Amino acid sequence: MTPPDTARLRLSEFAAAVGLPASLRYSRVAAQRWVLEPFTGWCRRPVDVFALTGRLHLANGRFMPVGWSGTGDGLARLQGGALRQRLVQVARGAGMAQPTVSCDGPAVLASQPAALIAHEAIGHFAEGAADPRIDLRHRLGCRLGADDLEVLDDPTCGAAARYDVDDDGIVATGATRILQNGVLVRQLHGRASAAAAGELPTANARSSQITLPPIPRMSNLIVSPGTNSFEELVDGVGSGVIIHHLSHGFSRGLHVEARIMLGEVVAAGRATGRFFTGGRVEERVDVLTGCLARARESELNPNALCGKHGQILYDVGTLAPAMRLSRLRIVA
Predict the structure, then answer these.
(1) Closest C-alpha among 156, 151, 126 to residue 216
(2) Is the distance from CB of 316 to CB of 302 less than 8 angstroms?
(3) How many Cβ atoms are within 10 Å of 31's Cβ, its own excluded?
(4) At a CB cut-off of 8 Å and minimum separation 6, what does 256 contact?
(5) E runs forming strands in 114-254
(6) DSSP state letter for 139
(7) Sign of the C-alpha dihedral, residues 105, 109, 114, 120?
(8) Using CB atoms within 10 A of its CB, is residue 52 exposed (0-12), middle (13-18) or buried (19+)?
(9) What's the burial of 2, exposed, middle or buried (CB within 10 Å: 0-12/13-18/19+)?
């Protein structure tokens, strides 16, 4: 485990580098999973995850939530790199931003908000029901994305989640293609939900602790990249907005919502530097059917915390490129 003095030192260095008053908490869980393997007997699998949570106090009196998590101890993230630099840029922009104005029009989602929307709109919609008596097979065949959008779930790719056996004891053999040509073609299952649906389990049974039952959950959601640069995405918007950072995403039924931490007005295909903050994105789960173009590079959302049915996991990853949408509904 990380020595407390080391964690406090890294948190202090992180807060000093950000340059804003901060309330932060660092957590780390290290455990062992024992798996009974055919022929070899019991094998030990280490489980090591971390979470950095809290908030920054912005110049305009607002607060910006901080949520980083994933496998390992995460201390390297605190010490520097592109993630910390981007957090500083978002916090400074949000600190001088104007209040959000309601609108409904073209938008570019930077990689972080694109990952959050994909997680809520596609990932959760693809999960089997926690209660195997509830049949969600009617969701198969639903269009959730543009014609060329493909999404995988892969616990073996070594992103935020990393396991070779799920909490039902099912071996993870690779990626599960859940979205093909924009259409939901496969659901994510544990043993119970798979049996109820007449399907094979996909090694997606996950539990936050040994006293709680495993339920179908995402591992690493991977959204297919496109061919554009970020500047080309913005140029294609004309007049609209860039969403640089979202927080507090959730989905309920066909509804998806997230808070806007930082947005920017686009005019004549150029970012104007006129930032806004507050308000929220309110959309349906099929919002990505309006995805007209995607960036050629994907990024992992640094926030891998995910709560469902009272179970919070630190390692639910989403890897996504920036996206240009034909429209996005923003509510002040």
Answers:
(1) 126
(2) no
(3) 11
(4) 117, 120, 121, 249, 250, 281, 282, 283, 284, 285, 287
(5) 151-153, 176-180, 183-184, 205-206, 215-216, 220-223, 240-252
(6) G
(7) negative
(8) buried
(9) middle
Which letter does DSSP use for residue 213 in this model? -
Which helix (H) or strand (E) covers residue 311, if one does? strand 311-313
Percentage of the chain surpassing pLDDT 70?
99
Residue 7 confidence (pLDDT): 87
Q: Which two tokens mark 104? A: 């409904």
- Mean pLDDT over 65-89 rounds to 91
pLDDT one-digit tens code per residue, 118-145: 999 999 999 999 998 999 999 999 999 9
Instruction: Judge whether residue 167 has pLDDT over 80.
Output: yes
Which segments of 166-323 does DSSP mark as H helices, in order? 191-197, 230-237
Q: In angstroms, rounded to a whole number, what is the distance separating the alpha carbons of residues 271 and 263?
A: 10
Number of residues that make up the chain: 332
What is the pLDDT confidence band of residue 271, given thresholds at 50, 70 and 90?
Answer: very high
Residue with tokens 């959760």: 124
Residue 97: count of CB within 10 angstroms of its CB: 23
Average of per-residue pLDDT across 48-62: 93
Q: Is the pLDDT of residue 201 over 90?
A: yes
Q: Identify the pLDDT of residue 1.
A: 60
- Cα 146 to chain centroid distance, Å, stands at 19
Q: Which residue has the tokens 């994105």?
A: 281
Here the tokens at position 242 are 């860039």
DSSP 19: T
Contacting residues for 106 by C-beta, under 8 A, at least 6 apart: 237, 238, 239, 240, 241, 266, 324, 325, 326, 327, 328
Quote the pLDDT of residue 296. Answer: 97
Rounded Cα–Cα distance for residues 221 and 121 (Å): 12
Nearest by Cα to 250 from 125, 67, 64: 125
Instruction: Assign 23 a pLDDT band (cuts: 50, 70, 90).
Output: very high
Q: Does 100 have pLDDT greater than 90?
A: yes
> CA-CA distance, 246 to 238, in Å (whole number)?
22
